[in-house]
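User: Hi! I'm working on a homework problem where we have to compare a predicted structure to a textbook description. Could you give me the structure for the chain below?
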Amino acid sequence: MADRSGDVAAAWARVRQHLRESAGARLFDQWLKPMELVETGEADSIHLALPSAFMTNWVKSHYAERLLQEFRALIPDVRAVSIETRRATPAPAVLKAEAAPAGNITTLRAAKPAETAPPPVLDSRFTFDRFVVDASNRVAFNAAQALAEPGAPRFSPLYLHSGTGQGKTHLMHAIGHAFLAANPGAAVIAMSAERFMFEFVTALRARDTLAFKQRLRNADLLLIDDLQFIAGKDSTQEEFFHTVNEFMIAGKRLVITADRCPQALDGVEPRIVSRLSGGLVADIKPPEPGLRRAILERRRAELVDTPVPDEVIDLLSSRITTNIRELEGAFNRVVAYAQLTGEAIDLDFTAATLGDVLRGSQRRITIDEIQRAVSAHFDLKPLDLVSARRARVVARPRQIAMYLAKRLTTRSLPEIGRKFGGRDHSTVIHAVRRVEELRDADREVDGAVRLLMRELEG
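Assistant: Happy to help. Predicted structure tokens:
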């Protein structure tokens, strides 16, 4: 190529074009576009500048090698590409390549700060249409949808709280997806409170807090997860308070999640609690049995070639009651093991796959409880189930009680037999098999078993 300065400017324009094509417009605009060429007169080095230390570190870690390769492909004698942070004091002239005529550098101007925030890292699974709604989460769901609607927000911040794995993070990401779909050019930032704290401390140490503040406050939607982790961090809380304040004054959308209501956040400044309480606070309650089953049925409907029988759905939804994340995790584990082994999913396969999970979540149900529940359901006396009576009105409930004892307790077959009037373990085996057959063929028996299991495990 001809003269050095013209070569560098032309090469830089082409490098930028390649980066835009490979990285995509959003990532390029938010991370790479603010980078500018610094003319130093050095023959074998390229110097690039960014407006903040935070952006400099990110580009160095993700694009340093790529930038060197791009320049070498165009100017073979380039040996190094340096990426630096622009100083506030006068520095070497910074050139915008797209403003310079090919082969001649004539336009010099000060660098501009980053124009937009970095792209959000939103989980593609967490959308509104994949969120199963019932009374325990309806208010939070409706509030999340309302905040994502176009136009001026009706409230902000939205504060969602619940125990672990109940769906608050799902709703937070769903807001981000819906808001971006309605506003494709919007700037959305999603981060955990721990990430907020880490980035702020990093900026503080680099004496570059202004860029951090501008990046967050330029966002149209800010999503912060698990706020409880900033408890006791004074400097982080100070910055968080000002961020919340700025968003409220500007009428922008802010979503915050935590594992408890604002007033229960130990170690969080009262003024932050006051600001958070000034928006809409919505809680998500632990999932009821109906919701747990509906969630699993939704996940089952999404499967293509892996049948999951109703009795497995019943088992998982009745046994795993702690939170939705564990429930879905158990379901996914069973499906994955079945696909890897080629085995069919049934109760035995599920129990073998999830033995540790099911044992850990199982409430200690006794055979006495089962006998009382079955007797009440069939209008019998508990003594009838342990008696020698063989009439159908007693024999069938007795078989169902034995089946439930096998399903819901850890007692051995001989132990179960002894609890039913000293019967042999082979009688218990026959009862279990008979009830399994009847559940497939008789809706009344199947319905009774389902109802009894919900009562005993609920």
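For your comparison, note the following. The two ends are 78 Å apart (CA to CA). The CA atoms of residues 234 and 269 lie 8 Å apart. Good luck with the assignment!
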